[in-house]
Input
Amino acid sequence: MTNERFGAQSTADEVLTGVDLSGKRVLITGVSAGLGVETARAAATHGARVVGTARDLAKARQALAPHAGLAIDVVECDLASLASVRGCADALKARGETFDVVIANAGVMNCPFGHTADGFETQFGTNHLGHFVLVNRLLPLVPDGGRIVILSSAAHRAADVDLDDPGFETTEYDPLIAYGRSKTANMLFAVELDRRLQARGIRVTALHPGGIMTELMRHTSPELLQRMAAAAKAGMHPARAAQIQVKTVPQGAATSVWAAFVAPAEAIGGRFLEDCHVGEVENQAYHGVRAYAVDPARAKALWAKSEAMVGERFPE
Output
């Protein structure tokens, strides 16, 4: 689906121009820096009641301090600890307030090899499994017709998930491959969750916000950055490669708010979004989504593997 109104250079505020979000309640993970702060600010500025999650509450409150008048609430949630994730879900359910939109924004990128509190490889455990448990546990709070937006990445093109060795126990660890696996997992999670929730009118989508220099890049060395750029431009016409630009944070948050509040729900459900439009399945091009990341059978297999890893079942 093409979108003539917005594109790669659009900002979150431009996308929300004239949109009144009064009465909407929104949950956004990762509101201590970067896209999370901007997405929360944009939604709240346009009238939404925003609750954010963060591993470090003090850091999040400091990051949100310039927007204190918007009354963005923050609750603790460390996605690298399932105990913290479950505690956050329980606390939010105890409040009994619903969320029209859930935006799974938080994440880590290109980390050195390590493990979460539960022994999962850091990037897969944080980016995918943490959100897998949190979102599923919060589904009773999402009313029929709601939306769930999951931040994936163009980096999903670097690697499919490895269901036989998700923790790099038999495979040599590569931070770019690990990040790519986790971002493919985000996309596959969206595909299967959308299938499960369509009967309730809840649509789920995943997106690439664009290349943005935020705190997410703190583990990305110059060498890794060069590898990422080379992989992105591989096979591209030089003129097209020269057009690739780094986005600003307001531009990076645009696709998130477009998906959450503006795009037609039926057009984005189970789809991959980029630059405020739906990306097509492309196995070679710089744009679009790889076929393995939207494969329904692969999505179901990842769901089953994820349930086994976290020790929790989420029936349809």
